[in-house]
Write a structure and sequence with these properties.
alpha+beta; 163 residues; 20% strand; 2 helices; 34% helix
Length: 163
């Protein structure tokens, strides 16, 4: 008598399922890392965009940054992409402590006396021809405190508050 049974055994099917589950597990972790890195890079690029926007507004207004330490508040309209971070939170922009309106999109403010922290308002500081930024997205959310050179490097430790 000839045995004509075709198909896979239960062990073979289970082996394939286990292999597919392992491949999916590795893929999910890899995709998570790619998304995390992308968010960090977009956040840093937004900070660079804000600095470039302030620099452009100063140029258009015919103003050179003052010698010494000068701080600027700014509106999200200096970025083409709007005012939301890659983490889904709105940027917290400084609109108090105004000393002088520079253009419709930036204004000179009193420089903060403390270091940048979560929950602060965002601002850009110009000191000794170096721009730095405090870019915040609300209390308990990620924020950046860095110079322009740090933003253009591969350093992601300048983004604080990530879990």
């Amino acid at each position: 008598m000839k045995n004509n049974k075709k198909g896979f055994t239960l062990v073979e099917l289970l082996a394939v399922i286990v292999i597919l589950a392992l491949i999916m597990g590795i893929a999910v972790v890899s995709i998570g890392n790619v998304l995390s890195t992308s968010r960090k890079n977009v956040f840093k690029e937004s900070a660079v965009g804000f600095i470039d926007g302030v620099r452009k507004q100063l140029y258009l207004a015919g103003k050179d940054p003052d010698v010494g330490e000068v701080c600027y508040g700014f509106s999200s309209s200096i970025l083409e992409s709007g005012g939301q971070s890659p983490y889904g939170h709105n940027y917290v922009l400084r609109n108090s402590g105004t000393k002088e309106l520079v253009t419709g999109k930036i204004w000179q403010i009193n420089c903060p006396t403390s270091e940048c922290a979560a929950g602060d308002s965002s601002y850009i500081k110009h000191k000794d021809n170096v721009y730095s930024i405090c870019l915040t997205t609300g209390s308990g959310n990620p924020f950046i405190s860095a110079t322009e050179a740090q933003l253009k490097s591969d350093d992601t430790t300048i983004i604080h508050g990530l879990s």
